[in-house]
Design brief:
Blueprint lengths: L6 E5 L2 E5 L4 E3 L34 E3 L53 E4 L21 E4 L20 E5 L16 E5 L1
Parallel strand pairs: 3-4, 5-6, 6-7, 7-8
Antiparallel strand pairs: 1-2
Length: 191
Amino acid sequence: PDGIGYAGYMDGMHLIINTPTKAIVSGDIMSLLYPSKSQNTNVIPKDLCFLKLFKGAQNIDIDENFKMSATGLTSGCYESIFEGCTSLTRVPELPATVTVGGDYGSAFVGCTNIRSAIVNAEVLSSHAIDHMFYGCSNLDYIKVYARDWNTETATDWVSGVSPTGTFVKPAGVDIPRGTNGIPEGWNVEEF
């Protein structure tokens, strides 16, 4: 749109978008891969597909229409996608119920204006959410749907979040306290 400046450049094989002025991102991210409605699919075609897409774009936020609709993920597909986006105020819905490895690694590192997040994945693969919310200092609500928890799945995933908050998880799923599980000082609710 008029008045919005941006710089798109390649980092290796990955497009990176940044803007010097406030910008609101809307729509389905999958439209970058499949612009035609007839091509509409929810499967990401290759590893690292959206790697670092908005990394460091301090003036980027998303609206309620922004979607990361993929349900078929690939390794590292959303890794560092919003890392360092300090104006980001929300985590979009993450509808995938199965991860394959590193999918959301470092996805929201340093996004200091995020207050809540819901992670729909029921099956978390190795390193799927490592460092996902690292340094999100205002994050004080997380809901997870994981049916099992392995600390290798979530290395430092909540390091540096708010010292108090609410963590919601499925009943009967054992998640340890600490930066690889439920943040220390947070209340736990089950569903």
